[in-house]
Amino acid sequence: MSHFLPLSRVLRLAGISRHALQEMVRAGKLDTFDGMVELNEFLRAFPDTCWEDDGEYRRITEIKEKAFGKRVFERALPDKEVLAARLFELGNEYAAARALLMHYSQVLSWLDEKIDEIEEDKSAETRHALHTLRAFVVRHLAELPPDAEKIQKLIAQERILKIMSAHVTLHPSGLEFSVEGSDTLLEAALRAGVSLNYGCSNGNCGDCKARLVSGEIKKIHAHDYVLSQAEKDNGVFLLCSCAAVNDVVIEASVAGARDIHEQRLAAKVKSVEVFNSQVASLHLLAPRSQRLRYLAGQSVRLSAQGVSGRYAIASCPCEERHIEIQISRNADDAFSELLWGGLKAHDSVEVQGPYGEFVLEDTSTRPVIFVAFGKGFSPIKSLIQHAMSLDQAESLDLHWLADGAGHYQNNLCRAWADALDNFSYVPHTQAADVESTLAGIVGDYPDLHRFDVYAAGTPAQLQIARLLFLSSGLPVQHWHADAD
Question: Residue 410: what are its φ and ψ, rounded to 5°?
């Protein structure tokens, strides 16, 4: 019987990016079946995998050797009941394999006996053929296949991955993510950039209801919301209260910009990061009991000490309680003046929102072009980080057209380009003729019909960009823009 591996485990076992895997599948270098890779096909495609340097083994070993303490164990290891269930499942698989081997042994013994019986009454030629068959069977049973050691190590590592994490597939979106440590399904999805519907995130509202299609889950947190018996019988559960025991398929809706209600919360200033004389970043920390629910690319209104302002969010929802807002210094903006004039760590800031529909089309696997005009980099940064966490897009290209503030996070963008094989970064210096710069960018993409484009800047800049991209073959539904 064939042994199949989910693509998420193929990525981790082979140590490659999803983009590289997609390229292999597209080029015919790796065969897949229903999103899975057969064991022998994996070994054929990745013959040089370094089995001894497995991250999961090393992570577990480090935890044991360094004795980081209870909180590290809680973060790295699954909930004890989930871990027990996964080990029980592994024990069942082991028992089934042992039973199958015993059955094969019995069949071989029976075959040997039958050969002895037949040899007694047959011709010399038949006895010779049977003797040759017996020798063939004995020889091949005694010889290990060439890849036996690799197969053993691969299966051992894949079993470790199954114990430490579970693979989740969402219907109908087709999005995938992994549940690691003691995370609930909701926590794991948000950390992976998947915007599942939820409300309170602590089992009171029922907004995160989902349906289990296949696999096994376990409730690890109590909840006050009462599910009807009909819902339970149909496999309905709360994402915020359950973890995956094994690989699961669940039916759950992914939130769009219009699905998220306006919220109001009191955040604390974590730090103020000044990039240069014109731009600074305000880092906020939401309360543990009320994290801000938003989508990458959206904006919020900030209020403190009697002044307020609306700004794009620069962080990714996958960053949990952390909220980053990039703000330009502007004498006509009272909140900007407060930021530059004395807002400090631990000060309270009211956050209201989110607003806007400049969000990522998160089920698209098309290559993406990001165009940031000056300080329009803020929402673009949020979208890029979201796209990275989803790891869906074929490629990500960032074009940053500078204004007077320059490329104030140039090092970050270069670090992304160095770290990711499917990310490219092209900084463009400030120019009086924006149209010429944009025409040069558009000219680098002769197959624009394959791309999604996300652009942020002033209305005038976006109007020029839209006309150029659409006239060069970009479908209008693939154009997404946000004006300052």
Answer: -60, -40
Q: Determine contact, residues 239/208, Cβ cutoff 8 Å.
A: yes
Q: What stretches of 40-159 adopt beta strand conformation (E)?
A: none
Instruction: Report the alpha-carbon angle 442-444-448, nearest 5.
Output: 60
Residue 216 contacts residue 185 (beta carbons within 8 Å): no
198: Cβ contacts below 8 Å, ≥ 6 apart: 186, 207, 208, 239, 240, 293
* Structure token digits, residue 172: 């109908």
**The token pair that represents 391 in the structure block:** 């790891």
- Alpha-carbon distance of 177 to 170, in angstroms, equals 9
Domains present along the chain, CATH in parentheses = 1-43 (no CATH), 164-257 (3.10.20.30), 262-355 (2.40.30.10), 368-483 (3.40.50.80)
- Return d(Cα 387, Cα 192) in angstroms, integer: 10
Q: What is the pLDDT of residues 434-463, one digit of tens each?
A: 999 999 999 999 999 999 999 999 999 999
Q: Note every long-range contact of 20-26, with CB atoms under 8 Å and residues 24 or more positions apart, other chains counting.
A: 20/421, 20/422, 22/365, 22/394
**How many whole angstroms from its chain centre is CA 274?**
30
pLDDT of residue 70: 40
Q: Which residues, in sequence order, are CB contacts of 435 under 8 Å at separation 6+? A: 464, 468
Which pLDDT does position 50 carry in this prediction? 54
Q: What pLDDT is stored for residue 402 in this prediction? A: 93
Helix (H) or strand (E) holding 276, with range, is: none
Rounded to whole angstroms, what are the CA distances from 270 to 130, 320, 323, 343? Answer: 80, 14, 9, 10
**Which residues does 445 contact at the CB level (< 8 Å), separation at least 6?**
369, 451, 472
Residue ranges of the alpha helices (H) in 403-481?
410-419, 434-443, 459-471
pLDDT band of residue 268 (cuts 50, 70, 90) is very high
Q: Strand order in 236-238's β-sheet?
A: 176-180, 165-171, 248-251, 209-214, 236-238
The DSSP bridge partners found for residue 248 are: 168
Q: Look at the block and give the residue holding tokens 């400030």.
A: 430
Residue of 268, 177, 266, 186 whose CA lies nearest to 223: 186
